[in-house]
Amino acid sequence: MIKAGQIDKGTALLIKGQPFICVEREFVNPGKGSAFVRLKLKSPATGQVLRETMKTQDNAEEITVEDRDCQYLYNDGEHFHFMMTETYEQIEVPMESFVDYQFIMKEGETYRVTFWEHQPLDIQVPTKVVYEVAEAEEAVKGDTVTGATKNVTTETGLVVRVPIFIKQGEKILVNTETKEYLERVNK
User: Which pTM was predicted?
Assistant: First the structure.
């Protein structure tokens, strides 16, 4: 058991017999009354999102999870395929649980996968990733108004708005949470 006031982003909880991961946490201390936390919980298995409000002294059932390094191999349209780096065992993770990651993860890269009772609960993706631009529209000459942008497609299929000077083959740094361009990478 864990006190609701100790729950952080990434904490795994068992609610109504189902595992949930805390994806957002807001601590509220009103002037009158006791403090409480607002939690946004997501079920990795179904994608269901719960919003819970709990007093900080209330108990919640925390579950023990295990993080493992797994190499992302590919996706087949329904599952992400990973290989555990320690045992070389291959696992399938349903894409419906992690739809946002379809164009973010790069084949061959290693990610930390959180397991509970051999069930993958979470995939930890870095917040900043370097991608190569696979397709870029040509900039129109004279279209240099301040802040002019265009869409580019990265090697993973992620579409990002970038400044017009970015060309095909260049590398860009992208925030994976907001899917926004951060800067051009010169390497």
Answer: 0.74
